[in-house]
Amino acid sequence: MKKVICVVALFFLVSCDAATTSTSIENTPKNVIIPVAGIEIENNGSLLVPPKSPKPTRDRYWWTHSPVVADFNNDGHLDIWVTGVQRPDADAQRGVVSEDTGDICGSKGYCNSNLTKPSLYINSGRGRYTLRDDLVRDLRERPGHSLARQNLVADFNGDGRLDVYIADHAVGNHNGIRDSYFLSQSDGTLLESSDTHLSASNFTVFDHGGATGDIDADGDMDVIITDMTKGGKIHCLMNDGTGYLRKKQRGNIFAFAIELADIDNDGDLDLIHAAHEFFDWNGNWQTGVALNNGRGSFSYRRIKLPMNEKWGTVPEVSSWDLDQDGDYDIVLSRAGELYVGTAIEVAENLGNGTFNSKLYELSVAPASFTTTSEGNEWNTFIEAIKFADVDSDGDIDIMLINNGDPKLPAGSYLRNNGRMQFTFVKAAKGSNIQRLPQSAFKK
Predict the structure, then answer these.
(1) CB neighbour list of residue 86: distance below 8 Å, 6 or more residues apart
(2) Which of 53, 363, 406, 429 has a CA between 20 and 30 Å from the CA of residue 437?
């Protein structure tokens, strides 16, 4: 018998209403805009896994997160965008054991070291990727990013080319830092445009989670980011159609990771929010779905998803129609406390706010293992989830993007066996997932 979990409880409203709203579906069905979600842009069918730190820029970052694979110059070839973490102060770690990145630079709460810049590698079309620093321009007084947790890729300014919003939660504190916003220009460059295209260009935010999509169905891509300070908030950055994003803070949701997808199959994008579940089981920190009313307003806690006492860290969430039944299912990256061990939860959408969840434990530490730091040997968490037909059998598999630890080597995936059953497949020779070698990258 399937275990079905359904909790419907409307507590309060999270609103991201924009000045311009979509036309009513009932009144003028021919003019309805089908909202686009960022996951539709991210999941471009690519089976490429770049190295986390390609050679020309490996010294630019302390470490990196998942690179973005997308066609940035519209030549039909997939390019690679890499961001990472600024290096800590030279003496920051002397005699210091950090629990997490919040105290990595000591008790002062920030790092004095230089910020770092994105790296854009352009694909030659012949299996070579060339670093093009000249195409990425940041003219701010203090350029660069600190800890780029999310790279949100979409055509924000409507010129037919991809732009990037960097949700940067900073290293060295839990108070955050200002984000970065790169817009494509007519000369082919990406220009950091916070001062001209963000209504709040320097507001400080600890945004561990971010997502992009047309939440108000007006034909342009908006941005949603989390704010984990003071109990948790959601910020909506509403696009006016030219790439100018107006900030609106609406309601309180503590979310470690978020994604946008049409969960209730009513034609608009809903907000999936994943908590850091170890902290508060009875309060605001709840994993669930906030449903969209069609105009960018979300009903907080309309649908609850089950929490997991063992695997309560949820650093990433995504969504796709895995069983091809016409609605979006939910996939959560889970880890233990202090990121000990790794699991994936697949929640099948059964409709009417009900889900059937199954957990796949991928990397399990011995029961005797203890740690006081996130920087432990069992920290192999899945930091990005992608969807593609890896084994060419006609259904969608789940690609697992992480740091390439031998326990979960880069290029591993969950194979879709049908009927929402999955098998973990470790990366190996002969896999359709291509792991790009360091030799493919050059200055």
Answers:
(1) 61, 62, 111, 113, 114, 115, 116, 144, 145, 146, 147, 171
(2) 363
